[in-house]
Structures are given as C-alpha cells and as structure tokens.
Amino acid sequence: MKRALFFASLLAIFAQSCANDFNEENIAPEQKTTIKVAVDLDEETRTYLGADNKIHWAESNEQLNVIYYADDNSASRRQTPTHADYTINENGSILFTADFSTTDGATSYTMGAFYPYAYKSVTSSISLSVPQTQTPTAESFDPATDILVSKEPAVVEGTPETVKLTFARMVAFAKMTIKGIGAGEIIEKVTFSSSAKPVGAVEFKVHEAATVENAKWYNNFEDITITRESWVATGEDVVWMTTVPTDLSGKEFTVTVVTDKYTYAKSVDLTGKSLTFERANVAVFSVAGLERQEKPKAYKLLTDINELNAGDQIVIATKASASSSAKMLSTTASGSSLQHTESMTISDGPEILPANIPAGAAIFDVEVGVSAGTFALKEVNSGYLYGVYDSENWSNTLSFKPEKDASASWDISLASGNVAWIGTFEYDGATTMRYVNYYYSSRFNFSGSTSSVYIYYLDGEASGDEGGEEPVTTPLATPVVTATAEGDVVTVTWAAINGAKDYTVTCGDVTTTVEATTATFEGVAAGTYDVEVVANPEDATINTASEAGMTTVTVEAAADAETQTIEITFPVEGAVSSNTVGTIYEGDVKISSTGSWRTDNVDGRDAIYIGRTTSHELRIEAQNGKTITKITLTAPVGYLLDLKAKESDGFSTQTFASVTEAVWVGQCKSRVVFTAVGTSHSNIGSIVVEYK
Length: 692
Fold this sequence. Notes:
The chain is mostly beta strands. The strands form 15 sheets. An eight-stranded antiparallel beta sheet has the order 33-27-42-28-34-35-36-37, with no helix packed on it. Strands 53, 54, 55, 56, 58, 59, 61 and 62 form an eight-stranded antiparallel beta sheet that branches. Strands 4, 5, 8, 11, 12 and 14 form a six-stranded antiparallel beta sheet that branches.
C-alpha cells in the first residue's frame, strides 16, 4: 500500500559576508529561483547579504528525491520524487508530499533526500554534477545549479506521517563584477576559466551519519560558460556562478566576455593573493581592465531563410551544432561529385570562425540567380556551383562553371532542424527538383534527396545583380486564432489566409504543420498553454511567413475515473485438465496464466492450478492507460491459496499464505504477477479485477 509522506524544510538566510561561513543550520533548499536581495557595496567588508534578504522556494516546479529503507535493510533502498503540489508556509518553510511504500512488518524507516530531483540507478552513493553552462539572473545564481542534501538521515518509528529534514548546501557561489564592458553592448556569453577546475561533482550518502562531512567533491573542468537572455552591458556587470568548493589562491583565472561588438579578456594572477569558493558561501570579487579586441566575424548557422541575401558569403557544412568533427563542401572533384574537407570545428552558437575553415573549403559569394527567387553561389576561386542530371545515362554532376545560368541558379529553403534544401529544377528539362546532398558521409553530390547539409553565412551588403532583380516580398496576413479544449483534446481554428500554402501550429511545446484551417492536439495535460499559428507562403518570391497569430487555452484536470470491474468465475468453456491456461481475458486489462487447468467435476473443482515447485504464474496487466486498483482471488470450496504477488510499478511484493481469498490493493499501471510460495499448491476458482 502507499501512504503520503510529508517533508518540512527550514528557510535559509545568507550570512553577512563572503569572508564568513554561512550558518549551516539555516541553510535549506529554498532557492529554485532568484535570490531576493538588496545588494550594498562596501569596499571594506565587500558585499554582504543582510538578514532581511531571504532565499525563498519557488511557487512551482520544486522537487526532491526521497530515498528510504525499512529497518536495517539498507540493501532494499527505494526512491520517490515529491509531488508537484506543495505548500509554502508563512514562515518560509515548505511542505512536500510523496508516495511512500510501506514494508510488511517494518518497525522503522531510515530516510534522506536531495535536491534537485534526479532518478538514480544506484542509491547507496549519489553523485550530482554542477553544470558547466549556467543561466543566472542579474540578482542570483542559476537555480538549476544548486545542490542540497539532508544533513543527517532521519530514522522514524513505525509508518511515518511527517518527516522533518534539514538540508545543507553542497555547492559554492561566486558573485563577480566585471568593469569596463561598453554600456549598451549585448553580452552574448561570459567564460570563467581556471586550472583549479572550479566545476565538477559532489558524491554523498544520505543514509550515513555526518552526510556532509563525509561527502566528496571532484574538480573536473576548467571552464564555466554564463549566458543570460537579453543581457545588456551597463559598464559594471554582475555575473553569478555556481562551483564546487575550489581554492584558487596562488593560481590564476581568465575571464572572457563576448558581446555583439567586441571580445574582452583578462587573465588574473593570484600569486600571493587568496580567492576561495567555499561550500555554502558567496565569494565576491571584481575584475577590471579587460583588454578589448575586435570581434572576429564568424559564419553563423542560417536559421531563417529571410536572413540570406545577395551580397552575403556562405559555406556549406555537415553539422548544425557545436562539433569538432564537422566537414565542409570543398572545391575538389570526386568523380562527378565534390569531396568534403578534413574535420573542422563548429563553435557554440553555432558558428564557424574563419580561422577554423579547412584548406580547400568552398567559400561562396551569394548572388541573385537567373530565375526569380533563386540564388547563384559563386566560389571565390572556382566559379559558380551547378548541378546537372543526365537522364539517358542516369548520372549526376555537382561541380563549378565559369558562367551563371539556370543550372547554376538554386532555390534555397530550410526544413526541420535548419537542414538546407539547395535545389534546382533547371537540369536537362526535367521537372523534379534535385539537391546538393551529403552522400553516405563520403562526398557531396547532386541527388533527388538531401541530408545533413547546413548553411553558415556572413552578413554582407544586400545587392542587386545583373542576373535579375531582388524580389519584393510582403508578409502574409496574421491569422486570427481560436482555441478550445474538451477533455485533454485542444482544437485550434482560424480563417484561411490568402497566399498561404500551409500553417505551422504550436500548442505549448508541441508543433505541427497542416494545410487545413484547423489543428487538433490530443493527450494535453491540464494547464494553460500559449497557442500560435503562422501562415507559410505558397510563393516565397511574393510573400514571407506571417506574424504568429496568438491566443491561450486552458485544459482542465480530468475528473477521477470511475472504477470498473472484471469478474471471471471458473469453469471456462473449452478448458482441458492439465493443459496450459494461456490468455483468459483481454481488454483494458489482460489476464493470462502459464499454470494448468484443474477441471474435476467429481469434487466440484474448476480452477487454475499453480504448483508449488513450478514456474507457473498468473499475470494481470493494465492496458490502454488504465490503472489496476484491486485484485481478488478466491479458491474453490475446500481448497486454499498459497501465493506471492509482485507489483511491477513499485517492485513491491505481498504474500498470501494458506488463505481462501487473496486480496491485493494498490495503484498499478503495469502488471501484478502471482506465483507459488510456501509448501502448498494453489487452486484459483475465481478472479475479480477492479481498475480505473
């Protein structure tokens, strides 16, 4: 059976100075969101967080992982997440609930927990990592980087109703102020690097005394990358970081800031100086005098076809994310195809720095093609990229030519995942478009399909070209959207938009493309969702995609399902004594057995036979999303049941020894399996299954 387990945690208050330890008795897992503080700068004492500046739990999305075992059987540990709903008290403490499975005959339970929740295949020793990429705010560290652990295991007598746990923080914080970045510049990322390796993991055991004192920290990585959305520099910019405990005293660190205009860098030598990132503490320091360098232009991944214009410069690569094994289209022939280059590096962003482009790579200037809406790709040294198909000889050619013509004019679009479709109709009078394709990771060819081809571009001066005029395009009208919910089904409707080919519809995190003026999303969980509809143009030379038409929709939580019952009483027609039973019933619940029949009408016994020394089993499985809540097995008159039930959701077991009726009660979405136990055979004369 399952009971609700409650957890109460204490509100934490930061200490006054980074030079002083935190009061660990007050450290609790209250931050998932922003630290609400007023920061005062004092050159003598540095920054401190006053007693009024408390860290609070977020109103939603907080979750612990609870690990427990019965009596002294530590090998039988179980883990369970706390529920999404919880209560935050006026004093700042928090009350969670969690599913808790009791163990028959247990007199006590040993319990511990950690934050944030993460399922662990091994629960005797837990390891959690501090992320290298972090997204803090201007006032606080990234809540996803925090790690909190119950300081001591809680041992409770009997079945627990409420368990109180006090937490300790296992990470260190750093609050760095960077001085001198140009006000108004957009900060793209900040990188903090040190040979002291401030990023790593912590390993701990929640069921052993002195959990914090016996924990182990590992310094694994040198770099922390910090990003923020819409990060506008002020000239004195605060950067929060989360680290494992690290002593940088006597070493050095480097800070690199990349903005939309420049790159700033400073290496700080700490010889004879101290800087320590202490557990459960905030180290506060500043960095000034960063050297400004011109930001090297980088080829950026093309994610919006409207960003590509004549006058730009492009390269064609095989990866759309940071990688050290990407290849590029080269200028070297491979029969009727083009070779790829040696491996090169695509950086975060993703982007390709000119210094990373391998020798022999094809670098194209973008021009207007000879047909409206097309582009010509002129390689700096080799000429125009073209593709032709010889239908008589079934051969393709992808190469370069000195002149711009129809075969060297490409229709370029983007598919899902930013895959570039670089194709042309104009080859040998055919009417089926063919494309630049990366062929079996060996070369680029001209083919009826495409895969793993991505465009990276440098913005250039938009220009016309003697081959044609730049088309004038206008966006389609914005759809007016209506969304309704019935049960867990959301229906989105809108009026047709003139010039639209199809529509991209998004409900929450789910996106689909339809040609009709309605879209349906099924199985939507309870909650409120943003709904968007974008009209896509039929002719990209005339129109661009519309602005998103937007609305919201609320899906109400479904009412509890009514209990349904399946009742089976033997004999079953066609049953033959000693034969294997097989499947007895199948619908929302499937009932089957590998036992044999006992059909003895002399003594009135008609039953499934589960032998004590056999591997016979009776399986009752939930299907179609149903949940089994109760199973009742009854023996024929004059006989007994001697069975063990194993429920697969929570891997719990229950024994029914020498009884005329066995009743299993629980919440099982998978299966319950009954097998022989003890020294007696079992005869099952009837089965009743209740489910929702």
